[in-house]
TrEMBL record, chain A:
Record GO cellular component, one term: plasma membrane
Binding residues for heme c 1: C60, C63, H64
Originating organism: Streptomyces cupreus
Compartments where located: Cell membrane
Name of the protein: Cytochrome bc1 complex cytochrome c subunit
Record has Phosphoprotein as a keyword: no
Assembly behavior: The cytochrome bc1 complex is composed of a cytochrome b (QcrB), the Rieske iron-sulfur protein (QcrA) and a diheme cytochrome c (QcrC) subunit.
TrEMBL record, chain B:
Membrane-spanning segments: 49-73, 117-138, 150-170, 182-203, 215-240, 269-289, 330-359, 379-399, 411-434
Name this protein carries in UniProt: Cytochrome bc1 complex cytochrome b subunit
One GO biological process term: respiratory electron transport chain
Top-level lineage group: Bacteria
Membrane topology: Multi-pass membrane protein
Subcellular localization: Cell membrane
Amino acid sequence: MKKLSARRRHPLAAVVVLLLALAATGGLYAFVAPTGKAQAEETAQSLAIDEGKKLYAVGCASCHGTGGQGTSDGPSLVGVGAAAVDFQVGTGRMPAATSQGAQAPKKKVVYTQAEIDQLAAYIASLGAGPNIPTEAEYGPEGADIAKGGELFRTNCAQCHNFTGKGGALTHGKYAPALDDVDPKHIYEAMQTGPQNMPSFPDTILSEQNKKDIIAYLDAVNSDDTENPGGLELGGLGPVSEGLFAWVFGLGALIAVAVWVAARTAKAKKS
Amino acid sequence: MSTTETTESRSRGKAPAGERVADWADGRLGIYGLAKANMRKIFPDHWSFMLGEVCLYSFIIIILTGVYLTLFFHPSMNEVEYHGSYVPLQGQLMSEAFSSTLHISFDVRGGLLIRQIHHWAALVFLAGMFVHMMRVFFTGAFRKPREINWLFGFLLFVLGMFTGFTGYSLPDDLLSGTGVRFMEGAILSVPIVGTYLSFFLFGGEFPGGDFVARFYSVHILLLPGIMLGLVVGHLILVVYHKHTQYAGPGKTNKNVIGMPLMPVYMAKAGGFFFLVFGVIAAISAIATINPIWAMGPYRPDQVSTGAQPDWYMGFSEGLIRVMPGWEINFWGHTLVLGVFIPLMIFPLVLVAIAVYPFIESWVTGDKREHHILDRPRNAPTRTAFGVAWMTWYFVLLIGGGNDLWATHFHLSINAITWFVRIAFFVGPVLAFVITKRICLGLQRRDKDKVLHGRESGIIKRLPHGEFIEVHEPLSQEQLHTLTAHEQYKPAEIGPLVDENGVERKVKGSEKLRVKLSKAYYGEESQIPKPTVEEYKEITSGHGHH
């Protein structure tokens, strides 16, 4: 130590310390730095972000602000995550119509899936949020339909009706019908809570729970669902049943009564 | 020769088997007398007289299918795990009532069809009673001597509502459970005794383990038993009073023109029964009703949007949905006016229509029997009242389905609720005024038709160039039909001083009666029907014009 301290005022001491420091950080970098493939992914990712940013500037910035910070016309998108973008844009809810109603309805999708992914990448880069789920997460394998039904009735039916036929909310808002919604979008909706819907993160509804709910909806509310009783009448319960009973039940019976009463045994005219 | 002899001897010796059976029965039951009295009962021909039959037949269908359902239904709230054939519910915990309803729907032969016939027939039964009641109301068939039968019918309608409600609750599914919870809430809102009543009804805290079994005996025994009795009474009175008929040539207050029960109406009514059964069975085979499997078992911690009762209870749902959530808190107690007021209005809506006949007979002071029906236009105040009542009822139905109106017509549910709140008060008044005007307009048109004939649509050009439309005079039958109704004169308060010069005190009720009578039959409320003199003057004079 004495040797070292004796030389500490040597003219080259500063140079040596600098070299050592550089070597240490460089070595540490070489040890920690990602490999070449990752570099390529990163490039692709940053490319997607760049493309997404361009799309965003054209299609979204007028309401959500140039940097996704939000304006009086649209909320901040920092931290909403890729899943929210994939849901909102993938179901056509975004971009919203200029004259907005109570809530943005589902409509024709205006972006391709590739563009949606780019937009999602850009928004995800603004702040951490839920990612787009994979097929393994929302697919039907390993799902418990009955459990999903119970979860649906406990968490979803209040707004979406027993079997996902939708329902009214206040002031013209509504919970949409879930007939034939893409399982990915159902998953994303639960994850991100779009518009008036509360979000159900994994801490509230686990990945398995979400899978069960999706499988239940697929069983009771898709094109392939069997209706053992015949026509479903909208699946809306007693109101549509009552209407049907009045119009087709009593209506038909009155028609029959008119017919029977008209066919009377007339006395022969002599 | 020998053959004729044998037939003769047979006919002389022994009557045919059927006659012998009839003789045997007559000796013990007196059926010949009954048949003689009733087989020739006359039914007038009109489709609106068959609405009651629709109700009777759907009631019979409900009883028949209901018996089948009781063979498989378990009225128990024991918890079981479902392992039947409906996959999306397998492994779920549910009450035995729900599980046995699933069993009926999926595993009993014909079970689902019978269940659907039972339920569709119930909706048609109630709808039929509603329309039948309105027919009786608007034609004034409730007048003396039929007031009691009107009340019997009204009671059948109300009991039908509650029988339907208890039946709807039996499967213990999430929809009906919500309905029962609704009812419990209404009971709880009753001041002081509400909690006790609720605990008494449910055997403790809601939902408890009793209500399905209790509703079951009410649904299959108590209410249908009373209803069956009332139906029999209703029919006996129909026979006893003889049928009413619409005015027409040859039809008087003392006769009934139509076809006899035997054989014409026996065949017609029998055929009509099968037609009713056929229509209901066809509907049940085509359309789902109350798919309890889609709703899932009832759990008090779950609820769904779009939870409504069957249509006949819809107006009570509307009352609750549109009522502001008022409540009063005092001394640690809560008076839930938001529920209690609707609970009080609920019977009021029904009673309003039930008591009307008595109000009308008090106003007219008419003690005579009436067997000739009114055309609704010739009783404008009554018709206007009926339409106002139906408007009231329908407004409440809109309130009961406010969420579906909102989603299907893209409206705000709040706006619908406010519409119903205002229309609850304004709607009936508007309907009353408008209906009365329409009735008076129709009366004027009838008068015109009688005096000037029917517009023929033929335009004639007179020699001096004037165009006129040719009016065809009505036939004698048509003239009779249009002028057969009688018109009341508004009541007057009698002389205030009697013959001895003593001042008479006029009671408040009498003043009210006179006022009402003026409103009913004053100048504003009916168009004087054409008199014979008017008719003669016009027809004998300058001809068509």
